[in-house]
Sequence to fold (399 residues):
Amino acid sequence: MAGTGGFSVSGYGPERGLWAMLAARDSMARRLDWPLMFSAVALSAVGSVLVWSATRNRTDLNQGDPYHFFFRHILNTSIGLALMIGTIWLGHRTLRGAVPVLYGVSVVLVLLVLTPLGATINGAHAWIVLGGGFTLQPSEFVKITIILGMAMLLAARVDAGDQVHPDHRTVAKSLGLAVVPILIVMMMPDLGSVMVMAVIVLGVLLASGASNRWIFGLVGAGVVGAVAVAALGVLDEYQINRFAAFANPELDPAGVGYNTNQARIAIGSGGLTGTGLFKGSQTTGQFVPEQQTDFVFTVAGEELGFLGAGLILLLLGVVLWRACRIARETTELYGTIVAAGIIAWFAFQSFENVGMTLGIMPVAGLPLPFVSYGGTSMFAVWIAVGLLQSIRVQKPMSA
Fold:
């Protein structure tokens, strides 16, 4: 019989138990997807330098300390890594059973944003002020709970062997689960997060094997909903202006089109190899707003040039490639759906962030995963990496 102590296995005493534990840890380490890990860490490391460059002269933001955002970014990354380790330790299957609690907590948090506890930052009323200079953006965690919740519902009967694909009733339930927090986030309004969540829902349904009628129906409903939102005046004026500036960048270059125009100037001035770290005139002159968060890619384009910006895109590509491999190799539908939801999230958010700096996408206030400054967004993406690693670790070795 196995002993009850953590270091006793099959009656062989504490020494054998210790070796068994070490062997288990070694097996887990070998199962981890190290290219995924190294790429994500490299992105956060590059991001810390870019954030430092963007904020070291911003005395209006850094409280007179040029290293303020640099060390905060490293702290956020460290907390994110700890959350990733915790997620791997718990395992995506354990979290599957905790989905109702996680979902309920995330819905309560986004509802709190609509109370006096909520705060408006950069035009979006999407934050909760915790005090001491710390804020929380609950919509980042909603992305995770939507993925886990929909995966739990869609995969339940398929993984049990009762169905080949989720039936219409199951798909409808999963959509109902996603719609509730999405509508709350839309009320803030946080259009960027709503766009990401909509793409996540689409990616999850595609991975689940749901009927194509649901896919086409959702796309059609999305078009109708976008038209209705614009017609009913749900969006704030600044959000409407962003879309107007995207459609016509020359409409108001000193006003609504200012961010995009300055971002394109910064990236274009970098050339092949860039102006050199800390030597970008657009960055040093503070011409690009929110350069440490939404427009951090412009720092790379200006100071590191095409090669440096290309490296960031390459690392993001490796993250997506490894996530796709994990989704393909897992033997359970639940793991496949979770990985697919994360892929849809990372891919769309990266494309939107880089695209808005190049003027090919509207400005939507979305951070660049792993790179942009921001605590909640950093925590969320590292939890997502933890989920991917858990799926990888818990698959059979033959896979």
Notes: The radius of gyration is 22 Å. The chain is about 70% helix and 5% strand. Residues 1-12 have pLDDT under 50 and may be disordered. The CA atoms of residues 6 and 17 lie 7 Å apart.
